[in-house]
Amino acid sequence: MSIINGKEFIERLNKMKNEIWFDGVNIKGAISDHPAFKGILKSKASLYDLQNSQDLKNEMTFFSSENENPIGLSYLQPKTKEDLKRRRKMIEHWARQTHGMMGRSPDYMNTVVMSFASSANVLSGRKNCFPENIQSLYERAMKHDLSFTHTFITPQVNRSQVYLGFSNEPISAKVIDRNEKGLVIKGARLLATQGGLTDEVLVISAPRLFLDPSEAFAFSIPSNTKGLKFFCRESFVGGESSFNYPLSSKYEEMDSIVVFDNVLVPWDRVFYYDNVDAATDFLVESSFYQFAYHQVITRQIVKTKFLLGVAQLLVETINVGEYQHIHEKLSEIIIGLETMKALLEKSENDAELDEWGSMRPSIIPLQVASNIFPKIYPRFSEIIQIIGASGMISIPTESAFDSEIRSELDQYLQADGMNAEDRVKLFRLAWDLTMSSFGTRQTQYERYFFGDPIRLSSNLYKNYIKDKHVEEIRGLLNLKN
To answer: What is the layout of strands, in order, in the sheet containing 200-204?
Structure first.
C-alpha cells in the first residue's frame, strides 16, 4: 500500500487507542467522535481524500522505482528545481483546503521525515548514531502514508542560559536507562501540535547551550507506545456549528504535553543518543530547515491570501472602500503577501544541489520570510479587527436567526448589498479568525512557529554574507585591513 484515504486514516487512528488526557480525563472510545477532535480529524481526513482525487492525483502523488503504488508527493526528495515547484504546488493544494489554518497538515511532518532521510549521512560513522534507522522510517512512512507530530521543546522550568536542569526526578525528557532492547525515556516535552492524533511522534533534541548528553537523542515511535501520554490543553472548539464557529469547528489543532513514563524506545527506532555534537550538527547540517521553511512559508502565503479575502469582503460589505486609510491597511496585506511570494520563488530559483544530491531551496530568502511573517501576521489580524470595528462584537448566533427575533435581525443587521444572515456569517468568520480563542491561538502560533523571533533574527544575521558589502565601504574610504 501507499497513499491512504480519509476513512482509512480515521479508522487506523481509532484502533490505536492512544493515551490522550483531556480536561483531566483519559479519553476512551473512538477519538474521532470526541467533540474536541472530531472537527480537525474530519478536516485532516479530507486532505487524504484530496490526494486520491482523480483531478489532483497527478499533482499530489509520485511513483518511485521501488514502489508501483502512488506515494504522497510530500515524501518526494527533490532532485531538480522542477521537483521543488511540484512540491510547492502539492503544498498549496492541501493549504487551500484548510485556508492555511492547519500548521500540522500531513505534508509538514512528511517533509521533515523526507529532509532527515535525504541528509541522514550527516550521522554516518559517528558514535551512538544510526542513520539507517532514519532511512527505515522514511521508507515505512511512504509505504503506509503515516501521519506524524513532533516535539522539540523542553518544559519552561528556567529559561536562563546557565540553567543546567538538576532535579531528583526528570522534568525534561531524558534517557534514564540503556539496555539490550533500547533506550528508556522519562520526563516531558512540549509542544506537540496534534499530539495523540497521529500514527507516530518524532522526538528530537533542539540544539542549545549546556545540552545534557542524556537529553541529546532523536527517535520516532508509535503514538500508542506503552507509557507514552498526551496531556491536552483546553479545547478552542467553540462548537460544532459552522455558522457560529466557521474555523474552530474545523481546524482547531490541539496542542499537548508529551509525557514519557519510562517509555522503551527500541534500538531500531533510535536515530542517535548521548551525542551532543550529533544533536547540534544534524539539524544545522541536514536539509531540515530548508525544506521545513519551504513548506511552512508556502502555507503561510495561502493563509495570507485568505486574510486578504476576508479583509476585502469586509470592506465591500460595509462600504468603506472610499477611505484612504482603508487603502493603506489593505495595501499592508498586499505588500506582505507579494513579499512572501517573491522570497519563496527566489528560494526556488536560487536552489542548489547538496552533497547528497537533493535540490535544497536557498536558505536566506526563506529565513527572511520566516523573520517577516511573525511580525506581519499579528498586524494583519489587527487590520481585520479595525475594519470590522463594532461589527466584530454585534454577531448573533445561528439559533438567533431561527427564533422569533429573526425579522428584527434581518432589519437591523443587513448590509449594503448583503442580507443580515450573510453579513453575520462574514463577521463571525472575521471574529473566529482574529478574536476568538482559536483566532488568538493562531496569532501566537504564527508568532513563534519557528521559535524565538530574536533567535531567528540572530541566525539570519550570522548566516548572511556581509563581507562583500563591508569591503565596498573599505574601498570607498581606502581603509587598511
So the answer is: 148-151, 200-204, 218-222, 270-272
C-alpha cell at 62: 509520485
Task: List CB contacts of 185: < 8 A, sequence separation 6 or more.
Answer: 173, 174, 175, 176, 203, 217, 260, 262, 263, 265
- State the Cα–Cα distance between residues 283 and 112, nearest whole angstrom: 11
Q: What is the Cβ-side half-sphere exposure of residue 133, based on CA atoms within 13 angstroms?
A: 18
Which residue type sits at 354?
D
State the residue for C-alpha cell 489587527. Answer: 382
Picking from 315, 350, 345, the residue whose alpha carbon sits closest to that of residue 330 is 315
Output DSSP code: residue 263. Answer: E
Give Cβ neighbours of residue 330 (< 8 Å, ≥ 6 apart): 308, 311, 312, 315, 383
Q: What is the pLDDT of residue 152?
A: 87
Residue 206 is classified by DSSP as P
User: Residue 160's pLDDT is what?
Assistant: 47
Using the structure block, give the residue that is written with the C-alpha cell 516531558: 188
pLDDT in tens, 181-197: 999 999 999 889 999 99
Q: What is the pLDDT of residue 40?
A: 98
The rounded distance, in Å, linking the Cα atoms of 204 and 149 is 11
**Checking phi first, is residue 87 left (phi over 0); if not, alpha (psi -120 to 50) or beta?**
alpha
Under a CB-based contact definition with an 8 Å cutoff, are residues 91 and 296 in contact? Answer: no
Amino acid at the residue 43: S
Based on C-alpha coordinates, what's the Rg of the chain? 24
DSSP structural state of residue 305: H
Round to whole Å and give the CA distance between 400 and 406.
Answer: 7
What digits encode the pLDDT tens for the residues 285-326?
Answer: 999 999 999 999 999 999 999 999 999 999 999 999 999 999
Measured CA to CA in angstroms, residue 210 lies from 159, 163, 165, 178, 216 at distances of 12, 8, 10, 22, 11
Q: Which residues of the chain have pLDDT under 70?
A: 156-168, 209-210, 481
What is the structure's pLDDT at 209? 66
Give pTM, 2 decimals. 0.95
Strand extents, DSSP E, 13-170: 19-22, 25-26, 61-64, 67-72, 148-151
How many CB atoms within 10 Å of residue 335?
11
